[in-house]
Amino acid sequence: MKLLTVSTTAAKEVLEKIVQSPHIPIATVWKLKKLVLKFNEHAIMYEQMRNELVRKYAAKDAEGNFVEDANKKINVDPVNLEAYAELLQIDAPVPAISVAELGTKVEGITVSDVMALGDLLVD
Length: 123
Known about the structure:
Layout: H1 8-19, H2 26-57, H3 81-88, E1 97-98, H4 99-102, H5 111-117, E2 121-122
Parallel strand pairs: 1-2
Helix pairs in contact: 1-2, 1-5, 2-3
């Protein structure tokens, strides 16, 4: 699974919400907790690598400050986008959970929650 397909912060919140549901079988909760641990491990490493790339390749002004666009995102020098592309293509071995394993009684999960899980949730 490519971590790019999952919003790491939102996915962690949704997974924690699902684990708290009282109607999920204990075997599924066990699998979810293992998934959360593995996902967090990869998400932390991904963020560290991304931050290193930003520090190394972000566009800077004459004073050495990062250049931000109108949306407050740091601009990356287009010459160095290849390093980002390589990071985004790395597959992280994180197991998925199936809809069937969650069952039909998961409470409080919205469509946006399901979308936040991306490739972590499969048919």
